[in-house]
Write a structure and sequence with these properties.
Blueprint: H1 14-42, H2 46-77, H3 80-107, H4 110-137, H5 139-142, H6 148-170, H7 175-193, H8 212-224, H9 227-256, H10 262-287, H11 296-315, H12 328-333, H13 337-364, H14 371-398, H15 403-428
Helix pairs in contact: 1-3, 1-4, 1-6, 1-7, 2-4, 2-8, 2-9, 2-14, 3-4, 3-7, 4-14, 6-10, 6-13, 8-14, 9-10, 9-13, 9-14, 9-15, 10-13, 11-13, 11-15, 13-14
Length: about 425
Amino acid sequence: MINALGLLKRRRFLPLFTTQFLGAFNDNLFKQAMVLFATYSIFSDPEVEQGFNAVATGLSTLPFLLFSALAGQLADTHDKARIIRLVKSAEIAIMAVGASGLVLAQLGYTNLSIGLMLGAVFLLGVHSTFFGPIKYAILPQHLEPDDVLGGTGLVEAGTYLAILLGTIIAGYISSNAAAAGVMLVALVGWWSGRRVPPAPPQGGRLAINYNPFTASWRLVSGTMHIPRLFLAICSISFFWTIGAVLIIIFPPLVKNLLTATQNVASLFTATLSIGIAIGSVVINTLLKGKISARYSPVSVVAMGVFVVLFSLIVRAWTPAAEGEFYGWTEFIAQPLAAPLLLVLLAIAVTGGMFVVPLYAFLTTTVEKDQTARTVAANNVVNALAMTVGAAAVIGISSAGVTPEDMLFLVAGMCLVSAWLAQKLHRACD
């Protein structure tokens, strides 16, 4: 097995990695700019802020429910590189819609701008739905079997580093600058996507079902009856539901409980991204290229412990004076800032160690002509779980549950994920 970082020198991997990196960066630059603008410049009620974030999360995951089955079928029956080119062309148009919303927000057309931005969030979900199965399914086709785990880890690490950059930059630039940035990155991503080597279908012809509901049902039922895939997909789904809840509650938590500026809110999301990237690399080193769920149960249990510790630190936090917010330097100067960020980093590292082997497991335990559909089935279940999680956040918030208390729910979900991962480990390792 070549060193995982050595894959970046290969033409069969680098263009895909670059295209995925730019897409993740652009998606998060736009979404973070939108969320921060809404949280700090439009709304002034914590429940409304959390509700807006939940709606945005729901809209971004809804396309996975509707179109993942079709995306998986197309990826398994058409050249994956050609689909990448089509998807990246669509991204330019989608970002034009989102950029218009960001510009209009600065001009005071609040309702119109929110409509355009939320519409772009939904369309970006469609974009990710069709790209998602390809970025994993193409790896076993372009890489040697011993390099798939390393390639998966690099894709995951690159994704979260891209999220890191996107979220940090969004906290420091204006809406107009973000609008220009997302258009530029979309164009570069289109150029990079055109350099992904061909990846023709591996199996026979497949009759494509264009009905999103029956196709999704058949896709999921055709995958979830296999015990090892059922356990892997359920574990991943719980993980992403946890992630959805954290993403929803963090901006209002930073603003209203930690009383910090939007720069600090971006720092929180960035810290999550750094941690998951680190966890992706660490688990690949521990497993030495072997695809196994051996470390997943203990990783997600540790994640739950750190989530509880994070909630306890938040409760002990000293807020700024009424009507004031801590800037970056003032926030770091607080006695609990360093422990808070270290615990947040630990949450993300253990999360990355949990989920990366499960994705590699999905793409290597089925035939190559079924990998995209397997990933698509996983995306459908993930999206359903995340949508339910977003709706639960709205319901729980309306019942008066605060973000710091909601973190205990997240910790409980970590235990469920650990139970599922342990069953997978016992069944397959």
